[in-house]
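Task: encode each sequence below as C-alpha cells.

Item 1
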Amino acid sequence: MRDLTDLFQGKADGKRAHELLKELTKYHRIQVTKGYDEALYFLKGYLEEYGIKAVVEEFEAGKKYWGYKTPTGWKASKGELWVTVEDGSAEKIADYGENPLSLIQRSYFRGELKALDFEVVEKGENPEDYRGLSLENKLVLTRGAPWRVRDLAVDKFGALGLLYYGVMDVEGLDRSSLRDVRNYVAFWPTGGEKKKAFGFALTAAQGEKLKDLRGKARLNLHIDADYEHLDILDLCGKIQGESEEEIMLIAHLCHPRPGANDNASGAVALIETIRLLKKSIEEGILKKPRRSISFLLVPEFTGTFAFLDRYYKKKHIIAGLNLDMVGADQGKTGSTLRVIGLPAQLGGFEDALLYEILLNVSRSRGLKTYFSDFQSGSDHAVFSDPTVGIPMPHLFQWPDLYYHTDHDTPEMVSPESLEVSITIAATYLYYLAMAGENDYMELESMYLKHLPERIRDHLKRLKGAEPPPTKEALSEYFRDYARRSYYRALKTLGMKAKRNRRKNFLKLTASVIEDQLRDYRAAKSPPSGWSREVYRRLKKGPHFLRQRRHELSDTDRETLSQLILKKNRIRAANSFFFWMDGKRNLDEIARYLLSEGLFYRDDLEKILEISLKLGEIGRVPL
C-alpha cells in the first residue's frame, strides 16, 4: 500500500486541480438548473480531453426515486432588494446578479413589489412566536431555520416571504465574527406547500441594521425566478477492470457560486484522481485492475437516489469513497482532514484502510487529521445505509469556518489539500480494485490499529448522554460491530469465512475494546423495557422525513417539525432506522441506541408512529 502512496504522491497535481477548481467556481451550480448542467458538461469536456469517456445520465426531475422527492427545474435572472428610509434615500442590500446567494435559492416570484413592510421574528420556529402579528403582504426578518419559518410565516400566517440573516452554527467553531457573509439558503420543495414563496439572504450586519429600522423603512424588490423544465443530470464513467465488480468514487457537483470547498473541491479531486489512475494504467506503471473503478458526479442526494434507483440491481458496486469538502486550507478555515467511518450497523474494513492511507500521505505535511464515528450529511450515507449495503467512507475537511457562505472561495482552498486528497483517493481506489484474499491480514491489521480512534470518538460523543450506557453494554456494542466488520470485509474481498480466522480476529478486537474501555465509568443504565415488536423498512436508503411533512395532518406535522428542531433527534432517528432490519425488536434496538447516547424513547415513539402513517416502515407479525 505504501508503494502506491509513494507513486501517487509524486504524480498527483494539486496546482492543476486548483486551476480547474477556479474555473468550476464560476458556475452557479444549484441542483436542476442550467448553471449546474453547464458545469457538468464543462467537466465532461475536460475528461474527454484526456480520453476518459463520461456519460451523462438523465432522470426526470420532480419524481421520487427510492422514495426520495427530487426537486423540479429552477431558473433565476434577477433578485434585487432595496431599503427606503423616511427621508426618501434608498440602499440596495441584495442583488442576485452581483451575488447569487443574495436570493434564497428556489424562490418563486416574477415581478416588482414596492413599499413593503416587514416584521421581525427572531427565531420564528414556534407558532407562539407569531402571536399578535399581522403578516399579510409583509416580509419576515428572521434568524430561524428557513424551512420552518417558511412553513409558519408563509403557509400558516400569510407572509409573502423571508429575509434571512442568520449564521448557521458549525460545531467546533465560533462563527459570531462572520458579520458580512451571506449564508446559502434554499426552499427545497416537498410538493405540499400551500403558497409559493421567495426571500433574500442578508448578512448578519444588514439584518441587525434592518431590525432597528422596523416601522421606519419600506422595502422595494424585483425578482424574476420561476420553474423551468429540466432533467436531473449525473456524470458517470469507469476505468474498465478484469471484472464487472466496481469500486466507486463519488462527489456532488452542486451548490451555489462560488462553492469552492463545498464542493468544487470534491468534484475536481474526483476528476484528477480518475485522470491520474487512467494515465498510470495506460503508461504501464500500474496493471489493469481486477475490478473496475467507476466515478459518479451528482447533484447531492438527488442524483444518488436517481442513479441507484436505476442501476442498483444492474451494477455490482462492492465499495466506494465519497469526496465532499476535501480541499480546505486548514490555516484559513479551521478544518481538520477526517475520515467519516462506516455505520456500526454495516461494518467493514474500508474506513480503516482509508484512514491508514490518510496518515501515510499527511504525516510529513503537518495536516490535522481525525478518524470519526459515522455521520450522515452527504451521499455516502445512501450507499452505506444497511438496506443498500455498499461500504463507502467519506473523506472530509471539517469544520469549515466559511461553510455554506459566499466566502467559500478558491482562496480558502489549498492546492496542497487537493493534492493530498487526490493521492489518498487514488491509493484507496486502486488498492481495493486489486485486493484479494492475500490482502486480508493487512486490512485486518489496519482495522485493529485504528479501532481505538473509532472508540475514542464514540466515547467523546457520549459525553452528557442521559442515561449513559454501561461498560458492559458498550463492550457488547463494539464486539457486535467487529463481527459485522469481519463478515463485510469477507464479502468485499470475495472470501469464505474460516472459523479459526474469525475466532482470532474477535479475540484481538475484544482485547482492543477492553483496553479502550478500561477507565470508562457509568452508572447502571435502566432497562429500556420498550417493546418486543419488530419493524422493517419498506424502501431502500435513508429516510428523509422532513421532505414528507406536508403529507401529515396538522398535528403530526407540528410534532415532526418540533422533533427535527430538537438536538440529536434526527441523528437518533437515522440510527434507529439503520438498526431496523425486520429481525431486531425494539428492545434490542434500544440497547444499541443507549450505547450511542441516542435513546430518546418518547420522541422515538412519535417518530415510529409518524413513519408508520407515512408508509416508511411496516410491522412484522410475531
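Item 2
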Amino acid sequence: MRKNRTVMSAVLVMMMEASWSLSVTPVASASAAEAQTAQSASSGQSTAKTRAAAVPTVSVPQEIHEALARNQGHQAEKWRFIPSTSQSVIFTFGGLSKKEPLVHVLDAMKANEMRGTFFVTERELKRNAENIRLIRSYGQDLGIGLTSIKGGGTAAEYAMQIQRVRDGLQQYGVTTDVVRQMASSDNEAGMKEAAAAMKCWFVGQGLNAVQSKDKQAQSADEVMPHIFGKWTTSLGRNEILYIRTDYYTKPTLASEVMMAIKQQKVDNIAYDAYGDNPTDNRQNDSVYRIVSVQDVLDEPAKLYQYPVETMDLPVEIQLGYGAGGITKKNFQREFFKRYIGAPEVSSSDRMYGFTQKELALADKTGLVKTAASQTVFLTFDDWGNDDSINKLLYVLRKHRVHATFFVITKNMINNPNLLRAIVAEGNEVGSHTDHHVPMLRVDEKGRSYIVEDNATYRQNVRSSYEKLLSAIGDMKIENGSRYGLTRLLRPPQLAVSRDGCAVALDEGFTYLVSGSGSAEDYGAVSMESLEGIMDHIVHKRNGDVRRGAIMIMHMSGSGTRTPYALDMLLTKNDQRPEGDPKKFKVGLLGDYLRDGYDQRMTTPKDMREKQIDY
C-alpha cells in the first residue's frame, strides 16, 4: 500500500507539473493568478487571490514556507472525479458529529461491501475521536477536511491546517494526501494553493447528495428527485459523490439515501440479463464498485493526466494536422474518395448543395470495399451515461470484438474516464461533432436549408477533435501499434451538405463515414425485433455475410435494448462453426480507412446487390 501511495504521489506531481504549461489546465498558472489579482486590485476589489498571497498573522513553520515557495503560486485542480479508468464510483462523507446516523451508514456499507472516504476536520479531531475510531473499526478511509478560516485566511494558514489534520490522522493509522473543502470559503484560491504546495489531491464532488430543502425529509423517495435530474440515469466512472451524515433530522435517512443511490444509480450500470448477470455469472465483470478516493489512487496504472499533454504527441495526432488541403478545384475528387455514404441518403433525402454529377457519383453503398472476407463493422453514435455505455463495453468484451464509437463531445468532457475506458478496451473513437447539429435540416415544406454557416460549423468539428484529443490523444490500441483516436467523422443524422463536407475534410478529418444500415435502435419495440434488424444488416438475403457492412447503432440511453440485442446477435454468431458462410468477423474502420483508401474503386462483385432493404 505504501508503495502504491508513493507512486500515486509521483503521478500527482507529474500531472501538476505537466499541466502548468497548458492553456487549459487543471492547475492555474502563477502568472495568470497574478494578472487576475492586479486586475481586481485596480478595480478596488479585494480578491481571494490577494488574500492567498497576503502575509499570514501567525508563525509559519519553515517547511511550509519552503513548500509554498517551491509551488510558486500554483493552484490545485478541484476534482469532481478522479482521472482513472478504474471501474468504480467514489463515495465520500462529511459531518461526523453524530454517532447514530454514522452507525447506520457504516452498517449499510459493511453489509454491501462498500467503501468510502470520511473527511475529518480539525474540529472533529478534537471533539469526535470516538466516531473517528468507529469509522476506522469498519475499515473505512479517512481524508483531510479543510475548513474556512475567518477573514478568508492565507495559503500558508491553510497549508498549516492541512498539516495539522494530516498529523492528527496518523494516530488512527492513516497517512493521506486527500483533501476536501468542507464548505464555501472567501479564499478558495488560498485553499487550492495550499493543497498544491502540500502535494495533495484537492477533491470536490460531482454530485452533492444533501440538499438544504431536505433536512426534514422522511424518506429517500422524497430526496432522490431533488438530487438527480431527468437525464442523470447513473453516476459516472470515478465520479465523486458527497453525503453529509449528520444533516438530516431523521437518523436513518443518510443511510437510506446512500442505498437508494447505490440501487438506482450504480447497480443499474451493470449488464443484467437472464442467465448473464453479476449474481449468476462469475464471468460477468460489468459491476461498478463503490470505493474510496484512496482505493482509486492505489491503482496507479489506471490513473492518467487530464487533460492530456498534447505537445508530447506525434504531429500527425495533433490538432490541425492535415488541415487546409481542400480547395474548390480538388473538393470533388476528395469527396468521392473519402465519403462512405448510406443507401438511404440521396438527392431527395439529406444531401444539399451538390451538383447533379456529384449526387449521381457519391457513394451509396455504405460499405468498406476492401474489407477482409466475412468482415463487418460495428459502430455506435452519440454519447451517454455509464449505464448505457458500460453495458456495450461488456458485450464487446464478452465476445472479444471491438467497435468504432462516434462521440458527441459537448457532454463527453464531463466524463472523460468513460471515454478512456472505451479505448482502454481496444475500441477506437471518431467524431460525431461537438453538439450534434446536422449539416442541413428540412423544413415543413420539404425544403433543405443549412443550419450553421461555414465558420460556425468549422468550430463545431474542430472543437470536437480537440476535446477528444484532450481525453484520449495519448492512448494506443492493437498492442500499441496505432492510436485509438481516429480522424473519422460521422455526420449527424447522416445529413451532408457540400459546404459542410468541404469544411470537415479541410479541418483534417480523413473520411466522412455514414454506413450501410442503421439498426434504428432508439425506436426498437423488442430485443428480438432489434436483433433481427441487426442480423439483416450484416447478412444478405441469402444469409451470406454482407462483407464490408457498417452497422450504425447508438450508445445513448435511448437505445436501451441495444446491448442485449447485440449480445444475442454475437452469441448466435459465436455458435456457428468456422467456415459457415453466415459466420462474420468484426473489424475496425480505422484499419481500413487509411493509407489512401479510395471509395471510388469499383465495388467488388460479391458486394453488389440490386437493393439493400433493411
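Check on item 2: Confidence is low (pLDDT under 50) at residues 18-48. The longest strand covers residues 375-382.
End of task.
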